[in-house]
Amino acid sequence: MRDEINESEDFEAGEEIHPLFYGAPTSTGFRKLRKRLVRETRAAIETYDMIRPGDRWLVCLSGGKDSYTLLAVLHELKWRGLLPVDLLACNLDQGQPGFPATVLPEFLTERGVAHRIEYQDTYSIVKEKVPEGRTYCSLCSRLRRGNLYRIAREEGCQAVVLGHHRDDILETFFMNLFHGGRLASMPPKLLNEEGDLNVLRPLAFVAEADCARFASAMNYPVIPCDLCGSQEGLQRMQVKKLLDEWESRSPGRRQVMFRALMNVRPSHLPDPKLFDFSALMPDSAHSNEKDVPILREH
């Protein structure tokens, strides 16, 4: 990740800005936060080669703090000529009781953001199919993903863009480690099974706390998820609590763990499908020595 940002990308008070930043605080603290979000998002986009000029991105907006942050930062990058793609915001109204259906359309229209609002009652399907006391997340996300892929194709988009951040990626890694028996997480860039859409996560380097501070400072109308949030004992919440405890005892621990995910050594993991251990043989000149040969590192 880059440590600095070009002067041309600096945000000075009073300069022309995208409507999504109207009313932004002028404090030094907020300006630093804003620059950090833009810098880290741009770094992730470049690191994982997400841009193909002229493409159209379907930017998924749930109404949560993370998706608001994603929407604002992507439009800031495009506004400044740093993101040569077309952006279409999309909210999938899944029919949850009490969902404030007018909030997002009004928010997007007032700020001149191109958008599509889609209603699909997946809530009833999830409630019908999932036994009482079980978590809804898996089925809910599959139904949501299927609808978003369909919408992306209908709108001529080449990418579905999600608001998952660094902490989501870490939590998913530990959920797979503790409960799935595998080392896996959310890739910042993924090609779907059909091979016609990229799934992108430009906030891969961004901390959840920064998304929360940004959305709060901008006073965006955050909409909570009452479906999953109403269930206690979710595995993800348990992992989040564990990471919070580690972070409180050792500040910066999350960032260290995330760097580890970007610094994988296949030869130091016991997966024979990942590394050719059969090719590790001692040199013939030392084959008669009594000492156990040292394996070569790759």
UniProtKB/TrEMBL annotation:
Family designation: Belongs to the TtcA family.
Co-factor note (free text): Binds 1 [4Fe-4S] cluster per subunit. The cluster is chelated by three Cys residues, the fourth Fe has a free coordination site that may bind a sulfur atom transferred from the persulfide of IscS.
Catalyzed reaction equations: cytidine(32) in tRNA + S-sulfanyl-L-cysteinyl-[cysteine desulfurase] + AH2 + ATP = 2-thiocytidine(32) in tRNA + L-cysteinyl-[cysteine desulfurase] + A + AMP + diphosphate + H(+)
Compartment(s) of residence: Cytoplasm
Enzyme Commission identifier(s): 2.8.1.-
tRNA(Ile)-lysidine/2-thiocytidine synthase N-terminal domain boundaries: 57-217
Keyword annotations of the record: 4Fe-4S, ATP-binding, Cytoplasm, Iron, Iron-sulfur, Magnesium, Metal-binding, Nucleotide-binding, RNA-binding, Transferase, tRNA processing, tRNA-binding
Classification lineage: Bacteria, Pseudomonadati, Pseudomonadota, Alphaproteobacteria, Rhodobacterales
Function (record text): Catalyzes the ATP-dependent 2-thiolation of cytidine in position 32 of tRNA, to form 2-thiocytidine (s(2)C32). The sulfur atoms are provided by the cysteine/cysteine desulfurase (IscS) system.
Protein name: tRNA-cytidine(32) 2-sulfurtransferase
One cellular component (GO) term of this entry: cytoplasm
Subunit structure as annotated in this protein's UniProt entry: Homodimer.
Known cofactor(s): [4Fe-4S] cluster; Mg(2+)
Database matches in PANTHER family: AMINOTRAN_5 DOMAIN-CONTAINING PROTEIN, SULFURTRANSFERASE-RELATED
Name of the gene encoding the protein in the UniProt record: ttcA
CDD domains linked to this entry: TtcA-like
Binding sites annotated in the UniProt record for [4Fe-4S] cluster: C137, C140, C228
Biological or metabolic pathway of the protein: tRNA modification
Gene3D superfamilies: HUPs
GO biological process, one term: tRNA thio-modification
Annotated GO MF terms: 4 iron, 4 sulfur cluster binding; ATP binding; magnesium ion binding; sulfurtransferase activity; tRNA binding
Species of the source: Paracoccus kondratievae
Signal peptide per UniProt: none
Residue ranges annotated as motif PP-loop motif: 62-67
Something else known: The thiolation reaction likely consists of two steps: a first activation step by ATP to form an adenylated intermediate of the target base of tRNA, and a second nucleophilic substitution step of the sulfur (S) atom supplied by the hydrosulfide attached to the Fe-S cluster.
